[in-house]
Write a structure and sequence with these properties.
By secondary structure, this protein is of the alpha/beta class. It is built from eleven helices and eleven strands.
Length: 316
């Protein structure tokens, strides 16, 4: 179920101070690019992957969330809600009526109600990015902009990346690649390392589980690979979706034939952490898999990709 605040991209452009909606920031990450990194997650994504591990990053505006397990049942939130729907006694929230005013977040003493997303200026983001310069320099790290989908807020993402490069900070961007090329290109021109998701080689299967087909994504992947300094393909391996040998063969062949600059694929194994997160924002977790991904299966798919001359890692 979607909130009423699930609306269009909220990007302020043509103003002196470019700003955007940030979903989260995280320091000292060692997983999303080289070295020690600060991660800036922008809110809003054009895809709706059923297994999404951060569903609260999908909509483009700040939204309210509810942690039923933290709720004491004190009901302080109920009178705070101007719409009268902040029911907590049974853990029930009528999300379809929520206008994201965040009054209940203020009222709750137990952090059972939270806000996902806030507007930040590029200056505010840069202030966070600069805090760990010493670690970036020692580890070869830097800033990684992700999401949601960073390219869905192009002016904001571009300016963060440009300012980082200007200040000597290594830049990486995580992307699903679904953006008009000219806009996408204008963002990735300031990227040192592009972490590019390819989810499925079949257009119909891709659309069935992500909401969009893959043609723009594959086109952009080829163009981006000719433009950026370094690119790693990331392959979220999802049981009963993209784990067939045929799909992995097609992916290996596609990378070898069309993206000669790409030497590495990171397999990201499925985990079900997104399930509880969907509940916190009143959404149903639609993804269901009959089969599990055994180590043996993951390793055999890894071998297929390696047969195309790719260096392949397995992560989660
Ligand atoms: S104020 Fe917080 S703890 Fe109290 S009922 Fe509402 S959500 Fe639960
Ligand atoms: S954010 Fe909370 S107080 Fe505001 S409308 Fe939604 S449920 Fe009611």
């Amino acid at each position: 179920m979607r909130c009423k605040n699930d609306d269009a991209p909220a990007v302020a452009i043509n103003t002196e101070e470019i700003s955007g909606i940030v979903f989260d920031t995280q320091r000292f990450s060692i997983h999303d690019g080289h070295g020690i990194r600060t991660l800036i997650f922008l809110k809003g994504c054009p895809l709706r992957c059923e297994w999404c591990t951060n569903p609260e990053s999908q909509t483009f505006s700040p939204q309210a969330g509810f942690f039923a397990e933290k709720c004491s049942g004190c009901m302080k939130c109920a009178p705070a809600c101007p719409y009268g729907q902040a029911f907590c006694e049974s853990g029930r929230v009528e999300w379809e009526k929520c206008e994201a005013c965040m009054n209940c977040v203020e009222a709750c003493m137990y952090e059972a109600r939270v806000t996902y997303g806030k507007r930040m200026t590029v200056d505010e983001v840069m202030e966070i990015a600069r805090r760990d310069m010493v670690f970036f320099e020692k580890s070869g790290g830097g800033v990684t902009v992700g999401g949601g989908e960073a390219a869905a807020q192009p002016a904001f993402a571009r300016e963060i990346l440009r300012r980082c490069q200007e200040e000597g900070i290594h830049t990486a961007m995580e992307t699903c690649g679904y953006a008009p090329w000219e806009s996408f290109k204008s963002v990735i021109q300031y990227v040192d390392l592009l972490l590019y998701d390819i989810k499925h080689m079949d257009t119909i299967a891709h659309k069935a589980k992500t909401g969009v087909d893959n043609r723009l994504i594959l086109d952009n992947a080829v163009k981006a690979s000719q433009m950026v300094r370094e690119m790693i393909v990331r392959f979220p391996l999802i049981p009963d979706f993209n784990d067939s040998e045929e799909n992995v063969q097609r992916m290996g062949m596609f990378i070898k034939d069309n993206m000669p600059g790409v030497r590495r694929v990171d397999i990201l194994r499925y985990h079900s952490v997104g399930e509880s997160k969907h509940a916190r924002i009143g959404r149903e977790y639609l993804f269901k898999a009959e089969n599990e991904l055994s180590d043996e299966k993951v390793n055999s798919l890894k071998s297929i990709l390696e047969s195309f001359g790719l260096h392949v890692t397995i992560g989660g």
